[in-house]
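INFO  loader      accepted 1 record
INFO  loader      residues=236
INFO  predictor   begin
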Amino acid sequence: MDTTGGRPGRLRPITLLSIILLVLLIALAGGTWLLASWSPGWFDLPPREDADTAALGEHVEFRLAEELQRIRASNESWRIRMTDEAINAWLAARLLPWMSHEPDLVWPERLSRPQVRFSTSGIDVGIRVSGLLGSDRVVSLRFEPVLDSGRLLLKPGGIRIGRLPVPFARSAVDALLRESLPRFDDAMGELVATALGEATMEAIIPLVDERRVLVDSMQLERGAIVLEARTLNRGE
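INFO  predictor   done
INFO  writer      dumping tokens
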């Protein structure tokens, strides 16, 4: 016989707490999934056929080559400032054409072209990986460049999938990129190996006329990197 007078019974405290915890877990899981799905605000790949991007990429390539090859007094210190907008234009428009000159280099279909972002706390490198966690997601890794005794070290920092920080996934993502990326030679290969924590690299850029450019310092700004360097003549 009903003795409650027709009023519904109150939820027991343990039942109410269980419902609240379940709702919070569902909300947390949903929020985590959304954060992993959203691309970082700075990652914005332009179309390959974009004329403005192509023009800027070509200008960056020409300007950098001109600056590196310029005849200077031996050991004269000089600086160059490069914005992430300019470097990203080169990566978007010139990376694949540059690779086409090497028949053994094929960019993996599951990886997008990379992009970078400079800030005072480090360099973020982002790349979209297809089929990651069941979808296309942007993975971004942070590095802190350190010059020590003429060698460049890229100290690993945080990692994000989409906008979700994933503090314990660095080794897994490094392994994925190591397996997916093509095997570059020369300076590009050294840079990739350094980024993956396999080595350090000399902070020296060899020139076609046997001179060398020694990078003395790197200064990070918001949206740009400033290199201070010296050009060494043959035999120095």
